[in-house]
Design brief:
heterodimer, A: about 45% helix, globular, B: mainly alpha, ABC transporter involved in vitamin B12 uptake, BtuC, about 70% helix
Chain lengths: ~425, ~375
């Protein structure tokens, strides 16, 4: 017994001693790290400017949205390094919308009410934007939205730096009609953007002598596309144009299985509006080579602003990363917001809203201007996927194209426009 | 004729994807009665294993690179089986006969696994490995050395747990400055698995129909798995033991069958098959933390429709669901009845992919009203257990 007792004592004693030593060393490292943190921040927390970043960091949309977050953080870092806004550092507060639309609304409320941010950069899918729209409208707050979308919306509380349909979809359809054929099959994910986009395309085709031979929608995230491929072949036995507004994971399944079924780009060229450099990398360029995409910006755009942007991005996140259109739009919207705040001289929401209109910026994708309808004018380009996963720019507009949020091909919105600089006109008025 | 072959082939190929994904669950849920909501995540682990094996083979270049898929099948099986074994030993073992708790616990495990894939980096892996080494190593060491183990067990855990956590957290903290270690292995972004060159393209049957090699590969893989499982369960000694335990646990135990080992083995087998399914689906779609979520509902559907505890039922259910999904979604059904004025508008209305899903669900619900226990319900005394 005495032997056991001594052994017990030894075990307990030594583990106890070891534990206390470890705890002590742990505690000391903790205090030392917090000490260095405090000195490096220099107490700037107190007079920083808080902005919200609201994207899906998890779920099916994380594939795309995390890259936009990277671009926004890059812009914020650059601005902070150059002295911040109004002499204050920007403090980004990240929230995860989790690819779940009600979560977006919840997190938006949290950012505005609890964190008291002065603006929010966020959202990707139209469904998430529609979910947060009532929050921003009722609180009269401000959202900057970086992704191309279907239009048919013009909120005083949102600034849209992605393309309106006339800056992406319409030029793409025109280009296809001219170069690739008249018969169109429309494929999309089953939510608001593809459905509205396809309504626009159908009216445009009807007006310009094209033909919609079929359309189909896959639930977001679904990977079984065999039925669609059968339909596609039945509708376009001799080949034709496929207009693709699939979003997220379904794209991978779609292109992998298209190739398996023997549908090649020379006979069935696919024009995508949600596939950029980042997505090409994840799908694999061997499946996408020869297909097309329509955007305002590609990494291969040749301009000094773009060289700087690409270089800075790669330096921060690694040589193997690529830049794309939504990332560029996200990057420039932070700068546009900064310019608006500096022009207003305050972060007061109404003043910034007024000052934002008319802001010009030499963006990586060319000159952009914030218009009175809260969208920006920008250049449109069509690119063809090449072997290295980047795009060859095969066509571009001569200069920036003005945004038209209310679509002129759709009967319900024909003849309407949006102008927030004039209180008489507002979000939707008859021209 | 060509349309018929095409319809048949596509139905079978959709069904085979469902079947290979559901095969593991047919064993885990069907034979053991464990509602494993983490089954989808085991599929995902298999898909990620395929991705890792692909990257290992990449520097070798052709023709070796083309063989990665062959290597990744057993690798995915082993990884998923080990994950399943850990899951069984740590969670499921404690919850046999309590389906509701199992459901919640495995759902929690699925969340943990999804987040693990997103945030795993070398640092996290080292910390977890260190913790396991310290904690479980210490436990087993003391278990051997101490004769009064049962008495001091709780005290030892009470001491060892905080100590191991502290040490691993400390090590993690010390190394957190190293950028290479804190870089996520996979991150939340999806990764690409590109099929090897010999699986791209397909056999051209007619001008407009080509049988993709990938689909053929999956069908063959499914058949091989089916034959393997059938052989294992019905012809091998272990299969006999598994069947004995699932039919009457107490009696088997009395006759000297190590039921706990059999449980662990069965669960590992089911998980391993999920891993193989992951390898197959990585060829079709994308590989990401949520890959498993796309399949979990379908797999349960197959097992429930097929009748719990019945492989033949699962096969017929998978092929049936696949064929219906295809016929409705592709508009073939609408084409067949295009002459009928009453049916045609309705059928063309439902012939979109989203509506096809709804219709298949509706069909399954009405089917289960007629046969609540599925196609082939278990009969006899075992059914009452």
């Amino acid at each position: 017994m005495s032997k056991l007792g001594r052994r017990k004592f030894l075990v307990y004693g030594s583990t106890g001693l070891a534990a206390s030593m470890l705890l002590k060393s742990c505690a000391s490292t903790d205090t030392s790290t917090s000490g260095t943190d405090g000195s490096s921040n220099g107490g700037s927390d107190a007079d920083g400017i808080k902005v919200g970043i609201l994207h899906s960091l998890s779920g099916t949309m994380a594939i795309s949205e995390t890259t936009v977050v990277d671009a926004e953080l890059l812009a914020i870092d650059e601005i902070n390094a150059a002295g911040g806004v109004l002499g204050k550092q920007i403090i980004p507060i990240k929230e995860d919308g989790a690819s779940d639309w009600p979560t977006f609304a919840e997190k938006a409320t949290k950012l505005i009410d609890r964190d008291k941010v002065v603006t929010v950069f966020g959202c990707w899918t139209s469904a998430s934007r529609k979910a947060v729209l009532p929050v921003f409208e009722s609180k009269k707050h401000m959202l900057w939205y970086p992704v191309q979308y279907e239009g048919q919306e013009c909120s005083n509380n949102i600034f849209y730096t992605g393309a309106a349909p006339n800056q992406q979809i319409e030029p793409a359809v025109d280009w296809l009609l001219e170069n690739k054929g008249k018969d169109f099959f429309l494929v999309g994910s089953d939510y608001v953007f593809p459905r509205t986009a396809n309504t626009i395309i159908k009216s445009q085709l009807a007006a310009k002598g094209g033909k919609t031979v079929g359309e189909d929608y896959i639930p977001l995230g679904d990977t079984e596309v065999t039925p669609i491929i059968t339909k596609l072949k039945a509708a376009l036995p001799k080949g034709g144009v496929i207009f693709n507004s699939l979003n997220g994971d379904s794209n991978v399944a779609f292109f992998k299985q298209m190739q398996g079924a023997g549908l090649n780009p020379d006979k069935y060229p696919v024009m995508s509006v949600s596939i950029a450099e980042e997505e090409v990398r994840q799908i694999g360029s061997q499946y996408l080579k020869g297909h097309y995409a329509s955007w305002n910006y590609y990494q291969t755009v040749e301009s000094p602003e773009n060289d700087t942007f690409v270089k800075a991005f790669k330096a921060k996140y690694g040589e193997d990363r690529v830049t794309n259109d939504p990332m560029e739009a996200a990057y420039i919207m932070v700068y546009l917001w900064k310019q608006a705040v500096e022009a207003a001289g305050t972060t007061d929401l109404e003043a910034v809203r007024k000052a934002a209109v008319g802001q010009k910026l030499a963006a990586p994708g060319g000159l952009v201007t914030m218009q009175p309808n809260h969208h920006i004018s920008k250049t449109v380009r069509i690119g063809e996927v090449r072997d290295d996963g980047l795009f060859d720019i095969v066509w571009a507009t001569d200069g920036p194209l003005d945004p038209i949020p209310w679509n002129q091909y759709v009967a319900e919105t024909k003849g309407y426009a949006c102008d927030w600089s004039d209180p008489e006109k507002g979000g939707k008025y008859k021209t | 004729m060509s349309a018929l072959i095409e319809g048949l082939f596509n139905g079978i190929s959709i069904g085979s994807v469902l079947l290979i994904a559901a095969l593991g669950l047919a064993i885990v849920f069907g034979l053991m009665g464990v509602i494993n909501l983490a089954h989808g995540e085991l599929i995902m682990l298999g898909a990620y294993t395929t991705f890792v094996v692909q990257n290992i083979f990449k520097p070798l270049g052709e023709p070796w690179f083309g063989l990665y898929i062959i290597v990744s099948i057993p690798a995915a099986f082993i990884v998923a089986a080990i994950a399943g074994l850990i899951l069984e030993k740590s969670v499921i073992r404690l919850l046999y006969g309590r389906p509701l708790e199992t459901l919640l616990a495995t759902w929690g495990v699925s969340l943990i696994l999804r987040q693990l894939v997103r945030s795993v980096n070398s640092l996290l892996a080292i910390s977890i490995a260190l913790f396991c080494l310290l904690f479980f190593g210490g436990l087993s060491l003391l278990k051997q050395r101490r004769s009064d183990w049962e008495v001091v067990r709780n005290q030892v855990i009470a001491i060892l747990l905080p100590v191991s956590i502290t040490i691993s957290a400390l090590v993690g903290n010390l190394m957190s400055g190293n950028f290479k270690l804190t870089r996520a292995w996979f991150s939340a972004r999806n990764v690409d698995v590109s099929s090897p060159a010999w699986l791209r393209g397909g056999i051209r049957v007619s001008e407009n129909f080509q049988i993709p090699y990938v689909r053929l590969f999956i069908i063959v893989l499914t058949i091989i798995c089916l034959i393997g499982v059938y052989w294992f369960l019905n012809r091998s000694t272990w299969g006999l033991k598994i069947r004995a335990v699932t039919q009457n646990r107490e009696m088997s135990s009395c006759l000297g069958i190590p039921t706990e080992t059999v449980d662990a083995l069965t669960f590992a087998l089911g998980s391993g098959l999920a891993g193989v399914a992951g390898c197959a689906v990585s060829l079709l779609g994308s590989v990401g933390p949520n890959t498993g979520q796309n399949y979990i509902v379908d797999t349960f559907m197959v097992v429930v429709v097929g009748g719990v505890g019945n492989l033949l039922g699962a096969i017929i259910a998978a092929l049936g669901i696949g064929t219906f999904n295809y016929l409705i979604g592709s508009g073939t059904l609408a084409l067949m009845f295009s002459s009928s004025e009453q049916l045609a508008p309705f059928l063309s209305f439902i012939s979109t992919s989203s509506m096809a899903k709804v219709m298949v669900f509706a069909l399954i619900i009405s089917f289960l009203q007629i046969r609540p226990a599925g196609l082939f319900p278990q009969k006899g005394r075992t059914a009452e257990l």
